[in-house]
Amino acid sequence: MTTTVNCVRHGPGEEALDRAPWPGELGRRVLENVGKRAWREWLAHQTMLINENRLSPLDPKTRSFLTAELEKYFFGGGSEAPAGYQPPGEA
């Protein structure tokens, strides 16, 4: 039987993550409050942030930035796309 969560983005009944996808307290909050579908959406958003801002995931400043954006994406007002960003196919 599939475990479900009351997802902060999609509501109750969403399939739960198998493990905390992020370290520390934030990872625990994500595990308890975010479903797999919402996590996949975050990964796509994170990829866009890395590409559009030309970030290096190895840089500690990038990791701090992504942690803050993750927090905003799920538990704040939302993470915005960079200024001037147009999704593929809308240019």
Summarize this entry quickly:
By secondary structure, the chain is mainly alpha-helical. The chain has three helices and two strands.
Question: What does it look like?
Answer:
- This protein has 91 residues and is mainly α.
- It has a single domain (4-75), classed as YggX-like, CATH 1.10.3880.
- The chain has helices at 24-33, 36-52, 60-75, and strands at 4-7, 11-15.
- The protein has a two-stranded antiparallel sheet.
- α2 (36-52) packs across α3.
- The protein is globular and about 40 Å long.
- The N and C termini lie far apart (43 Å).
Low-confidence stretches: none
For the residues shown, what is the average pLDDT? 91
What distance lies between the first and last C-alpha atoms, to the nearest angstrom?
A: 43 Å
The biggest sheet amounts to: 2 strands, antiparallel
SSE string: EEHHH
Strand line-up of the largest beta sheet:
1-2
SSE diagram, text form:
Elements: E1 4-7, E2 11-15, H1 24-33, H2 36-52, H3 60-75
Antiparallel strand pairs: 1-2
Helix pairs in contact: 2-3
Which structural traits does this protein have?
two-stranded antiparallel ribbon, globular, mainly alpha, 3 helices, YggX-like, single chain, 91 residues
